[in-house]
User: Fold this.
Amino acid sequence: MDPPGPREGAALPLRATLRAVTARSEAPASFQSSGVRPGPLELIARGIREVLSRRRLIVYMVRADLKKKGADTLLGNVWWVVDPLLQMLIYSVLVTVVFDRNIDDYGLFVFSAILPWKWFEATVKDGVTSVTNQERLIKQIYFPKLVLPVSAVSAGVVNFTFGLIPLVGLTLVLYPDRMSAWLLLIPVVAAVQFLFSLAVAITIAAINVFYRDIGNLSRHLLRFWFYLSPALYSADLIINSDFAKEHPWVPAVYNLNPWVHLLSSYRNVAYFGAPPDWAGLAAVALASLVLLAGAILLFKRVEPTFAKVL
Assistant:
């Protein structure tokens, strides 16, 4: 028998793992009764059970993803340290030199926003193709496809944690007066971001199966979203602007952007030495749970057609 090709050979370990996990935990869909169409709550509960029962599989896929990405470049995962630092340098020159805006410790100010946004941007990028990139596995093996976007988002958590190294290093070396115990609350803010990112990733992963333009569209939308969010500037610049005073609806609409509260919370604990925006975080967390339920429902509704479309 001829040896497998490069792509097929690389997929063998994951394929074997999927078969083992699926055989132990759940019967194929063909053996499940289809006489009664499950309701929304049942589909959401089923999706949650599938993810929880495949924890080991998700861990394996996260490790494989990190190993693959680390091997694709010379610096590997060190780019999660280098890349945000380079972006910080570029934006610092742009704002403080070109635009001549004087903001105290602007490097830390912008870095505390660039790092979580980079995590979200990577999550969207990986989430878009998390299902379509596994076309062969989906057609050959039955397994809950929901683990694909979940593993993509989970891999981003590891990268984000790695990226916290330069944040702490910058604060200790260049901005020691900004160091405070509030930095310990970064995981709390990150947990809310994880919920929101997971809802987005699951949604776009499902839609991208049917509309492959999502990948191209998401890049432009992310760039637009970044500049509408208080990453390079403070949220007060928009809320207290003359335009906002003339149009009272502007602050209300602006605050609907979840990144206003997420970035403000990151900046509070990392730059201002203050507590996060608790009210904003609570609102984003609640909205993210609702969006996550809707995303799981959408994914489970269209999941049976993935093999046919792909």
